[in-house]
Amino acid sequence: QVQLVESGGGLVQAGGSLRLSCAASGRTFSRSAMGWFRQAPGKEREFVAAISWGSSVTNYADSVKGRFTISRDNAKNTVYLQMNSLKPEDTAVYYCAEHRYPVAQAQEYDYWGQGTQVTVAS
User: Fold this and answer.
1) Which of 5, 72, 99, 120 counts the most CB atoms within 10 A of its CB?
2) Over the stretch 32-82, which tens digit does the pLDDT of each residue have?
3) DSSP symbol at 26
């Protein structure tokens, strides 16, 4: 069993930055890949970024490449999502999730956090 808790969401102006955190507990975090997904009102959940357990592999959605950076600190059992140059279309609930591999398909992930709201004002 894995428990994931996201934090760091909030309201920010377009062009601003936020850093999301996801704290994991309950299993060996360093052996898991981690992903970030988001879901806007009326839309399906979409992939944002993923990172392998050793940080050697990262994967990004085209819509966030060059603006978002995923990283992790295995000593702290935490994965981060640094979001820069935020746009109103980035507004969504952001979720972290755990899987063995850093894939983009949400259905592959086994455990999910409760989500944190990110709102980008224009």
Assistant:
1) 72
2) 999 999 999 999 999 999 999 999 999 999 999 999 999 999 999 999 999
3) S
